[in-house]
Design brief:
Organism: Trapa natans
CATH architecture of one domain: Orthogonal Bundle
CATH superfamily of one domain: SWIB/MDM2 domain
Structural class: alpha+beta
Pfam families: SWIB
Helix content: 25-40%
Shape: elongated
Order of helices and strands: EEEHEHEHEHEH
CATH topology of one domain: MDM2
Protein name: DM2 domain-containing protein
Radius of gyration: 30 Å
CATH class of one domain: Mainly Alpha
Number of strands: 7
InterPro entries: SWIB_domain, SWIB_MDM2_dom_sf, SWIB_MDM2_domain
Largest sheet: 3 strands, antiparallel
Length: 141
């Protein structure tokens, strides 16, 4: 059942159609819908300053976890560089873990630390993969 309410609106305003799935449906199941956009002008959006800066194509300075920071000598021994972003340090650590097969075979979420990793992970023998990001924080100066 569809009822048009266009008789109650202004001539240039869009008409609303009352739609119902069943004729005996309670009023809470009713909804209003606009007719198709035929013959209307397209919507014009204003360009914001954020969109304009993206369009300029300039590269911005890295910040936050993507900004290179100095690392401790223990971390430097593992990653091989004196300055590195946190994101890249995590990638190096995971590559080292995979290369040396340091994941627990029964539970891949647990890392079995060798001597290099023990220096970074506070002397712990086993570390959960969710703990890694927190344990490397003190190594960024």
């Amino acid at each position: 059942m569809a009822i048009s309410l266009s008789a109650f609106s202004a001539p240039d305003a869009p008409s609303l159609h009352l739609l119902s799935l069943q004729s005996s449906a309670p009023p809470s199941c009713l909804r209003f819908a606009l007719p198709p956009r035929a013959g209307r002008l397209p919507i014009v959006r204003a360009v914001t300053s954020a969109a304009a800066s993206k369009a300029s194509g300039g590269t911005r300075e890295p910040r936050g976890i993507t900004k290179p920071r100095r690392v401790s000598p223990e971390m430097q021994a593992l990653v091989g560089v004196p300055e590195i972003p946190r994101t890249q340090a995590l990638k190096h650590i995971w590559a080292y873990i995979k290369e040396n097969n340091l994941q627990d075979p029964e539970n891949k979420k647990v890392i079995i630390c060798d001597e290099k990793l023990k220096k970074i992970f506070d002397g712990r023998d086993r570390v959960g993969f969710l703990e890694i990001a927190g344990l490397i924080s003190p190594h960024f100066l």
